[in-house]
Amino acid sequence: MFLRQKNSKHLVEVLDLNALFDPHKSEFRGRFNVGEEMPEAESFVKSEVCFPSSESLPRCWLDAHYRDEELRHSA
């Protein structure tokens, strides 16, 4: 899976999908997809990346409490 770093517009290959999907983690391991040589893996902050289409990451990947208000109202 590839995401785009918001400030540089470079593509980032996601190496740890579990960390990306886990709302309790703010970072994931990945590497830039630029140049001919494979760069070293590094940590990327989820809030600094988006999908290549510029769409934001789903809230459920970023916020572990994204449904708290909904659950309070249904109780």
Extract low-pLDDT stretches. none
**Span of the ends, CA to CA:** 38 Å
Output the radius of gyration: 14 Å
Number of strands: 5
Q: What series of H and E elements makes up the topology?
A: EEHEEEHH
Which quaternary structure do these chains form?
single chain
Largest sheet: 5 strands, antiparallel
The helicity comes to: 10-25%
Task: Give the count of helical stretches.
Answer: 3
The proportion of residues in beta strands is: 25-35%
What is the count of distinct domains? 1
Q: Average pLDDT, to the nearest integer?
A: 92
Net shape: elongated
Structural class: alpha+beta
Q: What topology, given as strand order, has the largest sheet?
A: 4-3-2-1-5
Briefly, what is this?
This protein is α+β, with helices and mostly antiparallel strands and 75 residues long.
Task: Please provide a written account of the structure.
The mean pLDDT is 92. The chain has helices at 17-21, 59-62, 68-74; strands spanning 2-5, 11-14, 27-32, 42-45, 49-50. It has three helices and five strands; from the N terminus they run ββαβββαα. A five-stranded antiparallel β-sheet has the order 4-3-2-1-5. The termini are far apart. With 75 residues, it is α+β, with helices and mostly antiparallel strands. It has one domain (2-74).
